[in-house]
Design goal:
With 148 residues, this protein is of the alpha+beta class. It has four helices and six strands, in the order ααββαββββα. It is globular.
């Protein structure tokens, strides 16, 4: 079981990420990642390290993601000791909040020596609801317990 304070700290980190995204501030967005972070987008792009992901997001915020907003909901947090956690979220980006959040994100988080939680690895996946539903219908035992 994860303690309430840790979940609150991680929720705060996720809110900061969204605020920096919403502001189109790639440098501030990147500051919440470790120097050697790994970042995988839903299209499969892999950014390696903070410098790489800041440069990529700076370009994206200037063109394709200009004016976009980040929407997310925390699904779960699991801690592994005092300095490591995994967070799973549902999320999306766009001009306005979609009726359904279409992506699932996994964050590997570390508490660095300054006491701050930062993202060491991020992976974003587009959720294929129809394929998921068909799979679960054809093979019900393949559905996770409590599938949503």
């Amino acid at each position: 079981m994860t303690d309430v304070e840790t979940v609150a700290e991680i929720q705060s980190l996720l809110e900061r990420l969204a605020a920096h995204w919403n502001a189109g501030d790639a440098a501030a967005y990147g500051a919440d990642f470790t120097v050697d972070a790994s970042y995988v987008t839903f299209v499969g792009t892999v950014y390696r390290g903070r410098v790489d992901l800041v440069a990529g997001h700076d370009a994206l915020f200037g063109k394709y993601l200009k004016g976009s907003r980040m929407f997310s909901e925390l699904v779960e947090v699991r801690t592994y000791g005092d300095r490591t956690a995994i967070a799973v979220t549902r999320g999306d980006v766009g001009k306005k909040r979609p009726a359904r959040l279409s992506k699932v994100q996994t964050f590997t988080l570390v508490r660095e020596d300054d006491g701050q939680w930062r993202v060491a690895a991020f992976h974003n996946t587009k959720r294929a609801r129809l394929l998921e539903a068909v799979s679960f219908r054809l093979l019900p035992r393949s559905a996770p317990l409590g599938a949503q």
